[in-house]
Write a structure and sequence with these properties.
313 residues, 4 strands, two-stranded antiparallel sheet, mainly alpha
Length: 313
């Protein structure tokens, strides 16, 4: 019992401290850095003291109630002994409630519910379902009536299928509103010009990684058994910016490359294209051998060093 009381006191002290900390303004240093000099320490101390007093009063009250019950029971036993009768302890409120909701039949009264069935000395009792089970069953019947009226007669509430369709419609409406507030970037693949824009290349790298492009081309673009090397000057489907953009957008289904334009926005395809072109000349270790044809820009003087990165797609 002492351990339980001490555990309760520890929990209350912790809770009181936590509540007081939430109410107080966070300062530097914190309360636990120097608790005794903290300006909120008096509040914590008073709050803890009040909780401790309340717990002690409750504990003392429980002990007094237990002692009182013992005295009452002892007096009843002595009175029954003087009268020459067997003392039967009176049930408390909880015991009476528990017996009422379960409809227990005392052992000494089981003969009142015995049936005529007898199997090798084993008798059968006519025990009924407990009242709480019957109440629950009646509640399900009442709910079934309400459900039928609300969902199938008055249609006041939607069924699961209709609720799903409503949520899909709400999501579509929210998506349209969002897209309306965030107009899509128009990308003209015929007018694309590469530039070593760090923001665009960084975005393309993130998309390249998140869409598992590295599973076929490696994280460094060096290529593997499935995907070609993206860091050399040889290309299978063209090495200019438009060809790379179209290849990423439409994919190469017969070679296992998805049409990323179906799941990416034109802006994302543009960003990945720029990132792929930025891999030119990185020369990763153990890169895959060149595939396709050598691509040489028609006007290399107008392109940056990054544009000279040609890869095989």
């Amino acid at each position: 019992m002492k351990r339980i009381v001490m555990s309760i006191l520890a929990l209350i002290v912790s809770a009181a401290t936590a509540v007081a900390q939430d109410a107080a303004t966070v300062t530097t240093p914190g309360f636990w850095d120097d608790p005794f000099n903290d300006p909120m320490f008096p509040l914590y101390a008073v709050t803890t003291f009040v909780f401790v007093v309340i717990v002690l009063v409750l504990v003392v009250a429980l002990y007094m109630l237990r002692i009182l019950n013992m005295l009452v029971r002892k007096a009843a036993e002595e009175k029954a002994a003087k009268l020459g009768i067997t003392y039967v302890p009176e049930l408390n409120a909880w015991q009476r409630f528990w017996n009422s909701i379960n409809a227990f039949v005392p052992v000494e009264k089981e003969e009142t519910i015995e049936l005529d069935h007898n199997y090798d000395g084993i008798k059968e009792l006519d025990n009924h379902l407990p009242p709480w089970w019957k109440w629950l069953f009646y509640a399900t019947i009442a709910w079934s009536v309400v459900y039928m009226v609300m969902y199938h007669i008055t249609f006041s509430l939607p069924l699961s299928g209709q609720e799903y369709e409503n949520q899909v419609a709400e999501a579509a409406s929210a998506k349209q509103k969002f897209l309306a507030s965030q107009p899509a970037t128009v990308i003209d693949e015929n007018a694309l010009v590469f530039s070593a824009d760090a923001a665009i290349i960084g975005s393309g790298k993130e998309i390249f990684t998140s869409n598992n492009c590295q599973s076929c081309h490696r994280a460094d673009g060096g290529g593997n058994a499935i995907g070609p090397n993206l860091t050399d000057a040889y290309w299978i489907h063209g090495g200019d910016i438009k060809s790379i953009f179209v290849t990423i957008k439409n994919g190469v289904v017969e070679k296992g490359m998805p049409a990323w334009g179906k799941v990416m926005s034109p802006k994302d395809v543009r960003d990945v294209t720029f990132y792929v072109m930025s891999l030119q000349g990185t020369n990763p270790v153990n890169a895959k051998a060149p595939q396709g044809q050598l691509y040489q820009p028609e006007n290399p003087t107008t392109q940056t060093d990054s544009l000279n990165v040609q890869a095989s797609l």
